[in-house]
Amino acid sequence: MSIGYFNGDYIQLDQAVVPIDERGHQFGDGVYEVIRVYDGKPFMLDEHLRRLITSARAIKLQVEQSEEHFKALILEAVQKSNLLDCDVYLQITRGIAVRKHLFPEAPLSVSMTVRPMRVIEDSVRENGVTAMFHTDERWANCYIKSLNLLPNILAKQTAQDRGCFEAILVKDGYVTEGTSSNVYILKDGTVYTTPLSKQILSGVTRMAVEKVTHSLGIPFIEKMFTPDELLGADEVFMTSTSSEILPIVKVDEKDINQGNAGELTLKMHKKFKELIK
Ligand code: PDD
Predict the structure, then answer these.
(1) Domain 122-276, CATH class in plain words
(2) What is the third-level CATH fold of 3-116?
(3) Which of these, 76, 110, 135, 261, could form a disulfide with 247 (CB 3.0-4.6 Å)?
């Protein structure tokens, strides 16, 4: 069963518990993580919690709780949900205080949801998804997993309105990442992805992809690439906690790999599933 959590209490998802004067609600003043649980075990939880703490520090959130505390909280919530395969959303904000821009003297708010895993059907993965290019209109600190996602939301909705699954963001002539994913190209047997910087999120699935490529003997190179290079690639794929490794077969109406999911991409996904086990 799906459950929620807010500041110490387990709640129904539709229960009203967040006061009007809450910084996440009013300012998006907080950070979050999305963690996937396979067969009762959170996948790469340490990496997610490390990134959560990095994000929190970057926006000067004084998180007193340890990574161990959050680990125990997540495990407790998953257990209470009775779900074996689920998605955990964890959010920390600057707390509850009368609306004013300056940091308040208030305890941080911690909220969480646990819901059944949103599985991508095998047939969708095997056929691949379509995408479009979109200007990256986000701010200068996209390495922070901040609640402020307006440019991501607008780009993703534009993609959906044009019949695409994802928008691939482009800044100064180079691909950065997707609205909620990292993006890769495969050319002559080598995987290329955008180097880590303040412009992109350091994806946890991206770390897993690095491991997967090594185990398959596929070179993994961090290098900027242009939309044209992407269109000329042998294979294109995206990754995220919720999509895992997903082939992209058409971008801006142009076929990649004749519109077929890349063979190596699917092989990497198979290996990724083995890694989970
Ligand atoms: N999104 N880039 C962005 C902008 C993201 O929002 C995400 C994840 C990723 C991939 O990160 P990871 O592999 O750690 O999930 C890259 C999550 C799933 C979300 O916002 O729902």
Answers:
(1) alpha beta
(2) D-amino Acid Aminotransferase; Chain A, domain 1 (3.30.470)
(3) 261
pTM flag (> 0.90): yes
The model's pLDDT over 109-168, given as tens digits with 9 standing for 90+, comes to 999 999 999 999 999 999 999 999 999 999 999 999 999 999 999 999 999 999 999 999
Note the pLDDT of residue 115: 98
CA of 98 to the centre of ligand 1 (A): 31
Order of all β-strands in the sheet with 30-38 = 9-11, 3-6, 109-116, 86-93, 30-38, 41-42
Specify the domain boundaries for CATH 3.20.10.10 within the chain.
Answer: 122-276
Contact 186, 230 (CB under 8 A): no
Q: Which pLDDT value is given to residue 80?
A: 97
- Ligand 1 midpoint to CA 205 (Å): 8
Q: For residue range 67-88, list pLDDT tens digits in order.
A: 999 999 999 999 999 999 999 9
Tell me, rounded to whole angstroms, the distance of Cα 30 from its chain centroid.
Answer: 16
What stretch(es) of the chain map to CATH 3.30.470.10?
3-116
Active site residue ranges: 145
19 within 8 A of 98, measured Cβ to Cβ:
no
Are 67 and 50 within 8 A, CB to CB? yes
Given a contact cutoff of 8 angstroms between Cβ atoms, the answer to whether 208 and 275 are in contact is: yes
Q: Looking at ligand 1, which atom is closest to the CA of residue 47? A: 14
